[in-house]
């Protein structure tokens, strides 16, 4: 059956931000699991899915070590509602590496007038990091992040959007 669990390949990457799960089908990257959500079970999947997951894992490692600023991956949007997908795809083009966009700005671009609905869509993003919901911020600060606010801060620091946090004085 197309899209069945047997066809999905999953690897777990040890990264500077914690264990990141990467799941792909033969069609493309299907899910990225952030450390706050626990590591998925690894699985070999089909040979085509294994090739996609290997490439996605390599690109994610490069992003997290600071040597990649964009992704060149096919995405498997299976299971993502069309309206949600449209907003996520708009995010990719509207907030490139090193830039942020507010929930309200993204909502206006997407024709979604309620910034809270945009926030809800970001919280349900199945492809964080690749579809950079960490770049969506509140008009008065960082806003929330499904991977935790500290991870959002670290990712924005990596991209040069925020200065590194200074250690607290003792």
List keywords for this structure.
alpha+beta; single chain; three-stranded antiparallel sheet; two-stranded parallel sheet; 170 residues; Arc Repressor Mutant, subunit A; Double Stranded RNA Binding Domain; 14% strand; globular
Topology (elements, then pairings):
Blueprint (H helix, E strand, L loop, with lengths): L8 E7 L2 E7 L4 E5 L13 H18 L17 H13 L6 E2 H8 L4 H9 L12 E2 L11 H10 L12
Parallel strand pairs: 4-5
Antiparallel strand pairs: 1-2, 2-3
Description:
The chain is an alpha+beta fold and 170 residues long. The chain has two domains: 5-64, 2-Layer Sandwich (Double Stranded RNA Binding Domain), CATH 3.30.160; 82-158, Arc Repressor Mutant, subunit A (Orthogonal Bundle), CATH 1.10.10.10. Helices cover 34% and strands 14% of the residues. It has five helices and five strands. The protein has a three-stranded antiparallel sheet with strand order 1-2-3. Strands 4-5 form a two-stranded parallel ribbon. Helix 3 (103-110) crosses helix 4 (115-123). The longest helix has 18 residues, at 47-64. The radius of gyration is 16 Å and the shape is globular. The chain starts with 8 loop residues before the first strand and ends in a 12-residue tail after the last helix.
CATH architecture identity of the largest domain: Orthogonal Bundle
Secondary-structure class: alpha+beta
Strand order across the biggest sheet?
A: 1-2-3
Overall tally of structural domains: 2
Basic shape:
globular
Quick summary of this structure?
This protein has five helices and five strands. The protein has helices at residues 47-64, 82-94, 103-110, 115-123, 149-158; strands spanning 9-15, 18-24, 29-33, 101-102, 136-137. It has a three-stranded antiparallel beta sheet. Strands 4-5 form a two-stranded parallel ribbon.
């Amino acid at each position: 059956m197309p899209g069945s669990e047997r066809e999905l390949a999953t690897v777990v990457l040890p990264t500077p931000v914690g264990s990141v799960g990467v799941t792909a089908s033969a069609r493309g990257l299907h899910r990225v699991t952030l450390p706050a959500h626990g590591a998925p079970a690894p699985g070999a999947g089909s040979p085509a899915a294994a090739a996609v997951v290997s490439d996605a894992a390599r690109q994610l490692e490069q992003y997290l070590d600071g040597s990649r600023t964009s992704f060149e991956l096919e995405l498997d949007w299976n299971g993502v509602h069309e309206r949600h997908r449209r907003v996520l795809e708009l995010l990719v083009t509207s907030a490139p590496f090193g830039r942020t966009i507010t929930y309200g700005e993204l909502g206006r671009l997407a024709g979604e007038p309620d910034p809270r609905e945009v926030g809800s869509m970001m919280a349900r993003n199945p492809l964080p990091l690749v579809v950079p919901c960490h770049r969506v911020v509140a008009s008065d600060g960082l806003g929330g992040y499904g991977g935790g606010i500290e991870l959002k801060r670290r990712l924005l620091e990596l991209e040069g959007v925020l200065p590194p946090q200074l250690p607290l004085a003792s």
